[in-house]
Amino acid sequence: LGYKINMPCFIRRYIIWVILTRTVTHEVSFTMAFHPSPFFPLYLQAHEDSQESLSSLPRRDTMGSFLPDSSSYELLNVIGRGLDDLLTVNLARYRPTGEHVAIRRIDLESCTNDMVTYLQGELHVSKLFHHPSILPYKSVFIAENELWVITPFMAYGSARDLICSHFADGMSEQTISYILLGMLKALEYIHHMGYVHRSVKASHVLISADGQVCMSGLRSIFSLIRHGQRARVVHDFPQYSVKVLPWLSPEVLQQNLQGYDSRSDIYSLGITACELANGHVPFKDMPATQMLLEKLNGTVPCLLDTTTIPPEELSMKPSRSGADSGICEGPGAGGVRHSNGGDPSSSSSGGHPYNRTFSHHFHAFVELCLQRDPERRPSASTLAGHPFFKQIKRRPSEALPELLRPVSPITSFSSSQQQDSPSGLASLESGLSHLEVDDWDF
User: Fold this and answer.
1) What's the pLDDT tens digit per position in 382-441?
2) pLDDT tens digit string along 51-107?
3) What is the SS3 assignment for 318-351?
4) CA atoms of 63 and 271, how far apart (whole Å)
5) Is residue 236 part of a domain?
6) Which 3 state secondary structure label does DSSP give 123?
7) How many Cα atoms are found within 13 Å in the side-chain-facing hemisphere of 310?
8) In terms of CB atoms within 10 Å, which of 19, 71, 137, 162 comes out highest?
9) pLDDT of residue 119
């Protein structure tokens, strides 16, 4: 892209519809490009970034299970907004079945050509992926001047939502083990398909009412497939990555000739493990330049417990004016740095919230993920067999809802109450108030 074309809105809308419709319904992906010819400025060309043909995939199509018709959906509450208010995320009810869904509505007329191409790439990837641990797109269609993306409504919200609203000092180790295993299953599939996720974090981990863990955040995903062959490394830096900097690996941030590969996602998984356990992400209060230096110098984040915090600090009631950064002085070190960027909650007994002990296997798992040298990080499939996950004895559908108590799914109220009772609607609004739009900007 790079050619600015003035054209009537109805022509522009039709062109966008053609481009996105081809992405969603055709068996071969297409990208939009502008041709310098004055006679026909717009043409379609075969997608060079992936030689995967959708015709080789199973005919089970996640984008056909819900009707592509806006009248089939009853818009309820707005979960949030994004993309400079071009994007609105709604909780909605699918009229034919009464099922709750999340709808991402994007104003196409106000989108730049770059944004449209970006959306098209995201839709291509969502069409390609079919895995229970990756959030599916149930339907994608154009409604007037908006692009509607229909996804299941994940009633527990994101893992980050749960931390912010109920687990300010971190989740239990067993809860984290279920979440991390679900993430590893998704990453194993993504890496096998030849992609790097590049946006692994707690706000992109969604949990359904029945305990299913799904990864979202496909906006920054990048293909290793080039001209039909799998590249060993890539050098592309993710667009719009300011919000995800604390999770990015050192090799992604340094942007040198060595590049990076799928193991950069493993580092981000380790950072996410610390985020889930400590209640906040390491490096969150640092300027970007300092964070880069810390990572390049081998500073290793850690789990905050009795093995990483000095006893004299554990005996003190934590100050509510500052928060642990979650960064050890080195691997296995006991020193912890403090900063002014958070508001940790003390435990109910008034003691230190991190006066707890995580298992040796959990610490070892995090250290493996956060190795400075990417060659020393295991693959997602290898990590899925780590001893840390031996504590998982039940299915997530049985264990996670129980482990997340007293939190209840947002949709745990009757449809009739929600429709007819003001108190039901107020309950819904209260339940949605802690959700972040980034969590639903898939």
Assistant:
1) 999 999 999 999 999 999 999 999 998 886 444 444 444 444 445 455 555 445 544 444
2) 333 333 333 344 557 999 999 999 998 887 777 778 899 999 999 999 999 999 999
3) CCCCCEEEEEECCCCCCCEEEECCCCCCCCCCCC
4) 32
5) yes
6) helix
7) 8
8) 137
9) 83
CA 104 to chain centre: 15
Range of the domain at 75: 9-153
pLDDT above 50 for 250: yes
Closest CA to 265 of 229, 283, 238, 284: 238
Per-residue pLDDT tens for 269-323? 999 999 999 999 999 889 989 999 999 999 999 999 999 999 888 887 665 434 4
Locate 110 and state its tokens: 């106000």
Asked whether 400 and 207 are in contact (CB, 8 A), the reply is yes
DSSP of 1-64: --------HHHHHHHHHHHHHHHHHSSS-EEEEE-S-SS--EEEEE-SS----GGGS-S--GGG
Please calculate the CA angle 71-75-80 and round it to the nearest 5 degrees: 140
Q: Does residue 47 contact residue 28 with C-beta atoms inside 8 Å?
A: yes
Residue pair 44/29 in contact by the 8 Å Cβ criterion: no
Torsion of CA 379, 220, 248, 228, to 10 degrees: 40
Question: Is residue 104 located within the same domain as residue 149?
Answer: yes
**SS3 state of residue 87:** strand
Rg (CA), the chain: 23
The identity of residue 132, as a single letter, is P
Closest CA to 71 of 124, 126, 2, 139: 139
Q: CA-CA distance, 174 to 155, in Å (whole number)?
A: 20
> 213: which 2 tokens?
């863990």
CATH value at residue 134: 3.30.200.20
240 and 258 co-located in one domain:
yes
370 occurs within a structural domain: yes
- Closest by CA to 42, choosing from 51, 30, 34, is 34
> Taking the CA of residue 397 as centre, how many other CA atoms within 13 Å lie in the half-sphere pointing to its CB?
3
Task: Return the structure tokens found at 250.
Answer: 């050192």
Q: What is the pLDDT of residues 60-71, one digit of tens each?
A: 344 557 999 999
Tokens of 268: 């981000």
pLDDT in tens, 190-225: 999 999 999 999 999 999 999 999 999 888 899 999
